[in-house]
Amino acid sequence: MKRTFASDNYAGVHPEVMQALLDANQGHAASYGNDDHTTKAIEKFKGLFGDDVEVFFAYNGTAANVLGLSALTRSYNSIICSDLAHINVDESTAPEKFLGCKLITIKTADGKIYPTEIEERIQRVDDQHHPQVKGISISQSTEYGTVYTRKQIEALSAIAKKHNLYLHMDGSRISNACVSLGESFRSFTRDAGVDVLSFGGTKNGMMFGEAIVFFNSATAVDFKFIRKQGMQLHSKMRFISSQFNALLSNDLWKRNAQHSNNMARFLAEELRKFSQVEITQSVDANGVFAKFPPEIIPKLQDEHFFYMWTDKIFEARLMCAFDTTEDEIRNFGNRLRELLR
Questions:
Q1: Torsions phi, psi of 237, nearest 5?
Q2: Coil, strand, or helix at residue 179?
Q3: Mapping DSSP to helix (H, G, I), strand (E, B) and coil, where does residue 135 land?
Q4: Which helix (H) or strand (E) holds 14?
Q5: Tens digits of per-residue pLDDT, 168-191?
Q6: Are 235 and 127 members of one domain?
Q7: 34, 285, 294, 327: which could join 141 in a potential S-S bond, CB 3.0 to 4.6 Å?
Q8: Residue 3 pLDDT > 90, yes or no?
Q9: Pair 234, 273 in one domain
Q10: How far apart are CA 281 and CA 152, in angstroms?
Q11: What is the CATH number of the domain that holds 268?
């Protein structure tokens, strides 16, 4: 299949990550995370976030989000999130099935949710007839490709602490956000008041694997049992952890994310050449959201596939990956130019 702008999930595995997998495939190693690769990977996460964090690996982002939230909530609780959040839109009913919680959504225009909106939805505290809010979940970067600033996250954390809630971050594209902000991972997560983080790898050059990072160790006391119950305890854990070792070595995470972010900006520059195309969101990370004339969309998708985001207004999502090239973007622009003549 030729490269597309459909998703960074469509991209293959970065060669350095693939080599790490091959290296990990030599000989035998202890199972269920009792291997040197996993010990080393956990140490790398502690180097990023602090020696007292708790780190667990899972297969995919749905598991990382749902299991991370399950450590924070009970089935009579509710979780506040954006109406576009993966836990609300793209993870089917996994959150409802495994958490038993009610999701309280906030309609968003830019992918973000804000303190005043959250306060409005914290209602009927201690009322046994009403779900009790226990968590706030945000995505970084958001499903609209926008990025929360550290101050915005601190403000959300302040609301969470005021109401005795937890703040969870879905970081499936956290590396793209980190590059966009130009700060350390820790600065806008742990230091900004996040309690639990899903740290993504699959969208940034890994084959599979995500990490759940607990900044409050008390919330992770029983997580090894939660992960096992959730069917996410990988017997050959070295094949997840070895990938994170590669991703977090030699700034590979940064190189991959910087490239995909740069390609998104380059794509946006190309699209701005056409008066008939409207970019609808700030291009903060590796996604571009734009409205196209409806009559050209099918033909454009035939050669450079992308997904429609909001059909009613002909808004598309175009994602860039660590292997997106400038030539691919130029070819997209040339085809767009032909179709708009």
A1: -60, -25
A2: helix
A3: strand
A4: none
A5: 999 999 999 999 999 999 999 999
A6: yes
A7: 285
A8: no
A9: no
A10: 18
A11: 3.90.1150.10
